[in-house]
Structure formats: C-alpha cells, structure tokens
Predict the 3D structure of the following.
Amino acid sequence: MPKCSFLLSQVSVLFFLSTHKPRRKRKVNEIQKMGSFMSSAYATPEESGSESNVIAVHSKDRFDEQFQAHKNSNKALVIDFTATWCGPCRMIGPIFNSLSTKFSQAIFVKVDVDELPEVSREWQVQAMPTFVIVKDGKEVTRIVGAKKDELERKIQMFSS
C-alpha cells in the first residue's frame, strides 16, 4: 500500500511551541518568519475554481486509451496519482485542476490508486500524491508530494 507523503513537522512544532512556555514565543516567531513548507501547497482563491480539463480515469482500458491518445500527439501527459484518503492529495487537487486550464497544451489525467492499483503498480507509484509527466510515450520527470511550485515549473518546462 503506498504511503501518504504528508509532513506535519512545522505545524506540530508551531503548535507545541505556541502552547508551551511563554519564553518560547521568540522561537515561534522565528519559525513563522521562515514560512511553512505547506504555504506553497495550499490553493489560492483563484486556483480553487471549479473549471478543469482534468480527465478522471476509472478503468485500465480508459487509462490505456488516454495514454495511446497522448502518444499520437506531441503534447505532454501529466498524470496525478491520488487517493481519496490522502490529505495532501485533496489539498493540491484544486491546484492540479487550475494548472489543467492554464496549460491547455498538455493532457491532464487523474488516477485513484485504490481504484486502479494495476496502473499504480505499472507506474511504480509508492507515495501520494505522485505526478508523472510523460512526453513522447516516455516518463520525463516525476514529482512526489504536494509540491505546487515544482509541479508548475515542470509542467511549464515539458509542455512547451
């Protein structure tokens, strides 16, 4: 079973430091100034719109159909391996949807790893979310985790 790649380290540290001993307030402020690793993963209001060009596949045949369609085009294929129980997946979902409208020159596909375990195994997905970018039928890059900035940068790099 793939593992969810959700880290609570800074959130936990902030909670602990803010609820224990007032003299640690300086440390809380220092951590808050550094920014949170989660800050780039949250969707901004304009990113959480409902418009999307993401194709949700619910069968191996449908996935194979989308993959073949991609191979016959010169577009990049961006695959989001996700799970309904995965917090970071739900967090970055609206961002993935907005990227699908921003980068119309790429094909965006969403695969639920619990619904299509054979596709997940075929692509060697071990953590969620995992984003795989495919160009000309070959994997060109992989992003593991809800890394919004890296995902957007790589999509831009391979979709042009």
